């Protein structure tokens, strides 16, 4: 189970930049905790947060539409795929079924799959919008496991942020952390995971754990 933002795509800073600019343009006042609070939220959740907590003077639907439209525009030339991301997904998919369990909206997940050619090896790619609740709730991981037809307890998840790690842990999965250098996860949460220095180390780590 791969997270997308921060694991396969270097997009956490892009999301932050776009949301901050959108909030400032529409009467919002950014809070010190806002960036981390929204990491892992589904689109309806962070749109409501920007209205209720940041003070954006639009409806949540208008906020979601505006922010996602700008993110899609940023992705027009292709998403900022992280080093080794495509190779790692293909290497893992050669041995185990894989899925993407992300808080990105479906349009951005599809952009990633189309631009990398990974749709052929990723049979399940879910947005938390489709699961009912965003991270740190486990919903998107549990739904991805059901769609793959496997037990969540037999899955491994790869995450980079505090809320993402909490989500995968709550789903009962073995969790591999590739900490986001720009938004480091909570050390207490990291301590409950297997920490990797880089995503490229994942296939070997999985092979060791599976014997």
TrEMBL record:
Gene3D superfamilies: HAD superfamily/HAD-like, Putative phosphatase, domain 2. It comes from the Bacteria. This is Haloacid dehalogenase. InterPro entries: HAD-like_sf, HAD-SF_hydro_IA, HAD_sf, PGP-like_dom2. Transmembrane segments: none annotated. It comes from Saccharothrix coeruleofusca. Pfam families: Hydrolase (PF00702).
């Amino acid at each position: 189970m791969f997270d997308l933002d921060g694991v396969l795509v270097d997009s956490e800073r892009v999301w932050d930049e776009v949301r901050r600019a959108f909030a400032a343009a529409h009467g919002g006042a950014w809070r010190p905790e806002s960036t981390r609070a929204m990491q892992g939220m589904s689109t309806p959740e962070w749109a409501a947060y920007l209205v209720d907590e940041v003070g954006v003077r639009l409806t949540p639907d208008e906020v979601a539409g505006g922010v996602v439209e700008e993110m899609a525009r940023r992705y027009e030339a292709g998403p900022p795929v992280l080093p080794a991301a495509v190779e790692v997904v293909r290497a893992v998919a050669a041995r185990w079924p894989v899925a993407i369990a992300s808080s990105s909206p479906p349009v951005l997940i599809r952009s990633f799959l189309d631009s990398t050619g990974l749709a052929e090896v990723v049979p399940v790619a879910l947005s938390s919008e489709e699961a009912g609740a965003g991270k740190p709730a486990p919903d998107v991981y549990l739904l991805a496991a059901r769609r793959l037809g496997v037990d969540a307890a037999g899955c491994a998840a790869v995450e980079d942020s505090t809320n993402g790690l909490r989500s995968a842990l709550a789903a009962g999965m073995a969790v591999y952390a590739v900490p986001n250098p720009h938004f480091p996860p909570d050390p207490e949460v990291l301590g409950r995971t297997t920490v990797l220095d880089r995503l490229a180390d994942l296939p070997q780590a999985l092979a060791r754990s599976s014997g």
